[in-house]
Specification:
Length: 351
């Protein structure tokens, strides 16, 4: 082992042992992902739905060296959701990860500090460094498995025996060939709860998701009309979905702990009733100023209003009818208008 590699390993150990933001970290070789053909087939079969960015740079996702030819190692780390799974009991539901600050900001902070720490060492002053989260064409979940952070669960999440799946992944490439961490065993066993409990039957097979049926895809990524019959299964979800994580036995301890402790913070910016959500999402209701640079900003006001109307209909929330009528009088987006009209029709019938 060269002095430069020894210095890099010592610097990495020093950084992660003193940084409370990271749960775990590991090292993977920067090589083509073992699941490259599965990823290619997933895209070819259109299971990525309207996420065209997944197909646009597929070669780079499958092989880091096609992205950065100089990359030799990937350092991957896990950092926790800002709001734990199961801590919120609201009927109008927002995925746990989105109920706190944008995790990309947390990842950027870790990456910035890690790079500075490494380059402060004389032997590493000229080391090449490229940081990533889920915004770069990197298959970070496979890298996490190779780095020993966990295994690829049947719900497609990275699962860890100690931390469950309530965490994000980040990492960085280096131009040093570091010794790789040992991968961990798959501990899903015969359990299929995530597949069995998915409200929209979005899992085609263990570890294979059809985004065309996924609540998270439709409530976050998709801007158009939701297919007839599918939205009836969304329940109260208006941004994302945690069902496949909440039913996972590896998360039960964390969910129980969160329920006993209560939410770590009172996210006052999140309404807890249908009428309050609708009022917030009306034109001029303050959505943009309240959620600017938050995960919810990715979906946008119009899509969230569409989602709130679907949730009100699914929940049979008659209290949301008045605000929805007021929203309909000013809304111009045809997709949003259609969902509000459907919600009002069903709520009026039930009245």
């Amino acid at each position: 082992m060269t002095p430069r590699i020894e210095a890099c390993l010592a610097s990495l150990r020093s950084f992660f042992s003193h940084d409370p933001r990271a749960l775990e970290w590991g090292i993977a070789p920067a090589r083509p992902t073992p699941n490259a053909e599965l990823l290619r087939a997933w895209v070819q079969q259109k299971h990525h739905a309207g996420m065209d960015y997944m197909a646009a740079r597929l070669a780079e996702r499958m092989d880091p060296k096609s992205f950065h030819p100089w990359a030799e190692s990937a350092i991957v780390f896990a950092f926790p959701y800002g709001h734990p799974l199961g801590a919120s009991q609201d009927k109008y539901r927002v995925a746990a990860y989105a109920r706190s600050r944008d995790y990309h900001e947390v990842a950027r902070g870790i990456l910035r500090d890690a790079e500075a720490h490494l380059k402060s060492q004389p032997l590493l002053a000229d080391i090449r460094f490229y940081g990533f989260t889920d915004t770069a064409p990197v298959f970070e979940r496979d890298l996490a498995s190779e780095a020993g952070l966990g295994w690829r669960g049947k719900n497609c999440c990275t699962l860890n025996r100690k931390h469950g799946s309530g965490f994000h992944l980040g990492g960085f490439f280096l131009d040093l060939a570091l010794p790789a961490s040992a991968p961990v065993e798959d501990f899903c066993g015969g359990c299929t709860r995530c597949i069995d409990e998915c409200p929209t039957e979005a899992f085609i097979a263990p570890g294979k998701l059809d985004a065309n049926k996924c609540i998270s895809y439709w409530t976050i990524e998709a801007k158009g009309p939701v297919p007839e019959g599918l939205s009836d299964r969304f329940g109260g979800w208006i941004f994302g979905c945690d069902v496949c994580q909440e039913v996972c036995p590896w998360n039960h301890k964390h969910i129980k702990d969160a329920e006993e402790r209560g939410a770590p913070e009172s996210p006052a910016r999140f309404p807890d009733t249908g009428p309050a959500w609708v009022e917030l999402l009306r034109k001029g209701g303050g959505f943009r100023s309240r959620f600017r640079k938050s995960p919810l900003d990715r979906a946008g006001r119009r899509s969230l209003m569409r989602n709130a109307a679907i949730a009100a209909r699914n929940l049979g929330d008659a209290s949301a009818a008045g605000p929805l009528r007021a929203a309909l009088s000013e809304e111009t987006d045809p997709v949003v208008r259609k969902e509000i009209e459907k919600a009002l029709l069903d709520l009026d019938r039930a009245a």
